[in-house]
Amino acid sequence: QVQLVESGGGLVQAGGSLRLSCAASGRPFSYEGMGWFRQAPGKEREFVAAISRSGGSTYYGDSVKGRVTISRDNAKTTVYLQMSSLKPEDTAVYFCATKLYSGAFTRSANYQYWGQGTQVTVSS
Length: 124
Description:
Elements: E1 3-7, E2 10-13, E3 18-25, E4 33-39, E5 46-52, E6 58-60, E7 68-73, E8 78-83, E9 92-99, E10 111-114, E11 118-123
Parallel strand pairs: 2-11
Antiparallel strand pairs: 1-3, 3-8, 4-5, 4-9, 5-6, 7-8, 9-10, 9-11
């Protein structure tokens, strides 16, 4: 069983930065990759970023491209999401997930295990 625990969320002013962490247990890094998604109230879950098992490939959503960086530390089985130049529209609950199935990294259906999420609130 894979368990994912996100941390690092909080309240930040527009233009600020946050680093989210996703601590994983249960051999999640044997899977194809890890991803971050977010969901704002009343909106569908949105792809943010993903990283392959080796870390050699990364993927970013159009709305965050250039402002976020995903990385992983396989020794610590932790995935990070460094976010900068935050905007009020980045406000959402951020989830990390383990990609089990083949297919696009951007599709949430290709991920099996999910964390509980961490709230990010960006004030204007």
